[in-house]
Write a structure and sequence with these properties.
Blueprint (H helix, E strand, L loop, with lengths): L1 H7 L4 H30 L2 E5 L4 E10 L4 E11 L2 E3 L8 E11 L6 E11 L4 E13 L2 E13 L5 E9 L1 H7 L5 E13 L2
Antiparallel strand pairs: 1-4, 1-10, 2-3, 2-10, 3-5, 5-6, 6-7, 7-8, 8-9, 9-10
Length: 193
C-alpha cells in the first residue's frame, strides 16, 4: 500500500516542466498588465525635495493671542531635490512678504494658497491648492495639497508638508507668550497624473 501511494503522486519531469512553464507565463502576463496600470493610477514622482529643505517665517511685531497688524516675511529653501524628468533640477526657493491682521490662532486652520517655486534651472512652478495647519503632539504640521497650475510640471499634483516646533504657538494661544518666528523642515512631492 505504501508503494501505491508513492506511485500515485509521482510526477514526470516533463509534466512538471510544462506546469512550471504555464505558471511562469501566467505570472509574467499578470505583472506586465498590472505594472503599467498601477503606475498610471499612482502617477510618477516628477520631483521630490526632502530635509534639510526648510521654511522660515518671521512676524514683526511678534504674534500674540490678540489679533494685530503684522508684517510677515517667509522663505523656503528646497534641497536636496531629485527629479526623474528634469535631471538638472536639484534645488529651489520661494520668498514672500505680506502685511495683515494676525494672531497666533491664525496659524491654525485651513485656507487656500498659491505660491511659486523658482528652481535652480531658472524654471518656475506655480502651485495652487489648500493648506491646513494643526498641532500634532509638540509639532506644528502644515499640509498643502494642490496642483501645479503653470510652469514646470503643469497639471501635476502636489503634496507639500512643513513640520516645526509648536511650543511657542501653544504658549501663545494660552496667552503665555508670543511667536516671533517659526523654523520648519519641508518635504515636497510633485507627481504626474
Amino acid at each position: 500500500m505504501a508503494e501505491s501511494i508513492g506511485t500515485a503522486h509521482r510526477i514526470s519531469p516533463r509534466s512538471a516542466f510544462t506546469g512550471l512553464t504555464a505558471l511562469l507565463v501566467v505570472l509574467v502576463s499578470l505583472l506586465t498588465t498590472a505594472g503599467p496600470a498601477s503606475a498610471r493610477e499612482n502617477g510618477l514622482l516628477d520631483v521630490t525635495c526632502t530635509p534639510p529643505s526648510s521654511n522660515t517665517v518671521t512676524y514683526n511685531p511678534p504674534l500674540t493671542a490678540t489679533p494685530s497688524n503684522v508684517q510677515i516675511t517667509g522663505s523656503t529653501s528646497y534641497g536636496p531635490c531629485v527629479s526623474s524628468s528634469v535631471p538638472g533640477l536639484t534645488s529651489g526657493s520661494t520668498a514672500a512678504q505680506a502685511t495683515g491682521t494676525r494672531s497666533c490662532l491664525s496659524l491654525l486652520g485651513a485656507s487656500p494658497r498659491t505660491f511659486t517655486i523658482i528652481w535652480n534651472t531658472g524654471q518656475t512652478s506655480t502651485l495652487s491648492g489648500n493648506q491646513s495647519s494643526t498641532i500634532v503632539g509638540a509639532a506644528l504640521v502644515v499640509t498643502f495639497t494642490g496642483t501645479v497650475t503653470s510652469g514646470l510640471f503643469t497639471g501635476d499634483t502636489v503634496l507639500h508638508t512643513i513640520t516645526g516646533p509648536a511650543t511657542d504657538i501653544t504658549l501663545c494661544t494660552l496667552g503665555l507668550g508670543t511667536v516671533s518666528s517659526i523654523y520648519s523642515t519641508v518635504t515636497l512631492e510633485i507627481t504626474s497624473v
